[in-house]
Design goal:
By secondary structure, the chain is an alpha/beta fold. Helices cover 23% and strands 24% of the residues. It has seven helices and 14 strands. The protein has helices at residues 46-55, 73-76, 79-86, 97-100, 115-123, 201-212, 231-239; strands spanning 8-13, 16-20, 25-31, 34-38, 63-67, 89-93, 140-142, 147-148, 154-158, 167-171, 176-178, 183-185, 192-194, 218-220. The protein is globular, with a radius of gyration of 16 Å.
């Protein structure tokens, strides 16, 4: 399989590490010797993620679970490969799980005109040729409001709009919010913005407002630099620029 290169890795907090790929990002959360991976890059990212885990002083087998925020290729492509390497279980919202398992194709975004060149540019950063999909056969299905056993109680927050089954992961005891592609940081100026390439913009805006109401000090996005202090205020200010319908 073609390797999907890891281009950077750094600590957001002592327990949270960002893994940056040519398109998209993944995150490792640490609870002592046990790790959780949030998102998994595009196809070919499994081995680079395993190397990044080792570079953080852990073995791939220390990763207990992979939580996928939505079904898009740049977030789920490395999940099956890494799960085989580590033994981790793969989790996703029940509405996106059938697409991740490959049971049917996922619906495409409804592009704004200005988003089309951005999407074309992103495609040029994916591996060439694009590997055949490597799909997990088993996905543990999540619902809005579920709590997972990491981060002293990780809350699954439904954030539909980018996809129907988009989720965020909130660690309230640590003030950390991982938004997937519901929210992003602009590559131009770092400003917090609504995520692009949405299936339903109206629902995406409503989800942005919902996430902005959560108490968080650190916010990590599927694309762009994290907010490392005062995240709730930053998200609320940004969300105010997108009126609810």
């Amino acid at each position: 399989m073609t390797t999907y290169d890891l281009i950077d890795a750094f600590d957001v907090t002592p327990r949270l590490r960002l893994l940056r790929f040519p398109v998209g990002q993944a995150y490792l959360w640490r609870d002592g010797s046990a790790l959780t991976l949030i998102d998994a890059g595009a196809a070919g990212a499994g081995v680079p993620i395993a190397d990044a885990v080792r570079g953080w002083g852990h073995a791939p087998e220390d990763v207990r679970r992979v939580v996928l925020t939505h079904f898009h290729e740049d977030h789920v492509g490395g999940a099956a490969e890494f799960a085989r390497l580590s033994g981790a279980e793969v989790y996703a919202h029940r509405l996106d799980a059938p697409y991740i398992r490959g049971e049917k194709p996922g619906p495409p975004p409804v592009y704004e005109d200005w988003e089309r060149p951005l999407h074309a540019q992103a495609l040029t950063q994916l591996p060439e040729p694009l590997p055949e999909p490597d799909l997990p056969s088993t996905v543990v299905e999540l619902e809005d409001g579920d709590t997972l056993d990491f981060g002293d109680g990780a809350r699954i927050v439904g954030a539909p709009g980018h996809t129907d089954g988009s989720i965020a992961v909130h660690l309230p005891h640590h003030g950390v919010l991982l938004t997937g592609d519901a929210v992003a940081a602009s590559p131009v100026d770092g400003q917090v913005v609504l995520g692009v390439f949405n299936l339903d913009r109206e629902r995406a805006v409503a989800s942005f407002h919902r996430l902005a109401e959560l108490e968080s000090d650190v916010a990590c996005f599927g694309h762009g630099d994290p907010v490392v202090a005062g995240a709730a205020e930053a998200l609320r200010t940004a969300a105010s620029g997108y009126p609810l319908a």
